[in-house]
Amino acid sequence: MESKRQQKYARLIQKELGEIFQKESKLLVGRGMITVTRVMVSPDLGLAKAYLSILITDPEETFDKIDSHKKQIRHQLAKRIGKSVRIIPEIAFFPDDSAAYAQHMDKIINKLDIPDSSEEDEEEE
């Protein structure tokens, strides 16, 4: 379980990474939309795991670009939060597959053959 300090740190990093991807990384991202869905910080505050949801563009290609530009993104993060925190964490990016999983589950649910309730069942209730 994360401490309050880790949670506060994670929220700050999530907010700032979101703004970095929105405003400053247009060359890196192009016209794609990147959402930072979750950030988890290690107990020593030295590592932040950021989960990204990528829309509109090819997720694998965009994720590879982001992963190869980690240093620049960390530098942008340091500019933004450097005066309010002691340690700028190393950032590890991971794809967030929750949207794809939700679509998959939606397809499965739509394929189910659920018969309508008959009038006899309704009378019993």
From TrEMBL:
SUPFAM superfamilies: Ribosome-binding factor A, RbfA (SSF89919). Gene3D superfamilies: 3.30.300.20. One of several proteins that assist in the late maturation steps of the functional core of the 30S ribosomal subunit. Associates with free 30S ribosomal subunits (but not with 30S subunits that are part of 70S ribosomes or polysomes). Required for efficient processing of 16S rRNA. May interact with the 5'-terminal helix region of 16S rRNA. The keyword Cytoplasm applies. The lineage of its organism: Bacteria, Pseudomonadati, Bacteroidota, Cytophagia, Cytophagales. Keywords: Cytoplasm, Ribosome biogenesis. It is found in: Cytoplasm. Its main location: cytoplasm. Monomer. Binds 30S ribosomal subunits, but not 50S ribosomal subunits or 70S ribosomes. This is Ribosome-binding factor A. HAMAP family: RbfA. NCBIfam families: rbfA (TIGR00082). Belongs to the RbfA family. PANTHER family: RIBOSOME-BINDING FACTOR A, CHLOROPLASTIC-RELATED.
